[in-house]
Here is the input.
Amino acid sequence: MISTTNEAFSPNEGNTRGILLFVYVRSTHVPKCTLISRASVPTGFMGLAGNKGGVGIRFRFYETDICFVNSHFASGDGQTNRRNDDY
Here is the structure.
């Protein structure tokens, strides 16, 4: 999905219900954004809930591949193993 305005566009947006990621690029660079893709992995309750997990968006900008990631994992000192498993 590509959303456009006069000043910028979002080459894609990621969503796992609770985790969002938006990337905006100036509209003058739109023709140079290619190979746009996204992925999301929910790791919440039983691997189904979207309150934990990660979202990624990647695209090629001119000749440079760019990837943005947003993640939210279990909190707390005693949750290290769970965070590592979800990663």
User: Anything to note?
Assistant: Helices lie at 80-86. Residues 3-86 form one domain. The longest helix spans residues 80-86. The chain has a mean pLDDT of 76.
